[in-house]
Structures are given as C-alpha cells and as structure tokens.
Amino acid sequence: MSSHHQPSTLAALGRTWVEAWNARDLERVLTLYDEAAVMTSDRIPAMGFDASGTVRGKEALRAYWGKALGLLPGLHFTLIDVFVSPDSVVVFYENERGKRICEYLRVNEAGLIVQGSANHLPH
C-alpha cells in the first residue's frame, strides 16, 4: 500500500496534471507517471488500443495519448476541483467539448501516478 501524502501535495499534482495537458506536452505529462503505470478508460478500445480498456506502462501510455493528442488539436481542460485521499487525487475538470470528467490518479510512495482511471458520465 502506498504511503500517505500531504493533501496539498496531491492537490498540486492534480493542478500540474491539468497544466501539462493544457500545454499539450506529452513528455511533461508522462513525467508524472511511474514506468509501470496503468490507465483505464472507455476511450482506449475506441482508439484502437487494448479491448479491455486498460493500457499498461509508459510506452503504451505514450502511444495512446500521442494518438489522442493528434486527433484533438483543441484539447483543453478547465479545472473544476481536486479531491484527495492519502494516496490519490481525483481531478474534476471540463474538457474543450464541455464534457465533465473525473480522473482518478493513485500515487506510489515517490508521488508518481501508478494507476489512472478516466470516469465519464454514463450518457
């Protein structure tokens, strides 16, 4: 189990995550992730990646997000709020299309993201 992190540190991670995406800087985003990180989203199969909806490892994340960035030239996240627990942060934001999304990000002892999950409204 991950060690506990300060709420302010996790909130800062959430804000940094949004800033990195808004800069469209994939390598900056990836510096926030552990080499063995996993990401789950219903968008993963739709983009031609693993049918399970999960990609594993930084290289798979780089391929998935690189493709997504190429398809979304206007990508922009407006931060609504961040929610923290001892080992995770939920980033609540609105994307450039007006969709509200919660991104669950669990971190390891080093403060790197080891698990992410994009959570969309069911409609």
From TrEMBL:
<dbReference type="InterPro" id="IPR032710">
    <property type="entry name" value="NTF2-like_dom_sf"/>
</dbReference>
<feature type="domain" description="SnoaL-like">
    <location>
        <begin position="15"/>
        <end position="113"/>
    </location>
</feature>
<protein>
    <submittedName>
        <fullName>SnoaL-like protein</fullName>
    </submittedName>
</protein>
<dbReference type="InterPro" id="IPR037401">
    <property type="entry name" value="SnoaL-like"/>
</dbReference>
<dbReference type="Pfam" id="PF12680">
    <property type="entry name" value="SnoaL_2"/>
</dbReference>
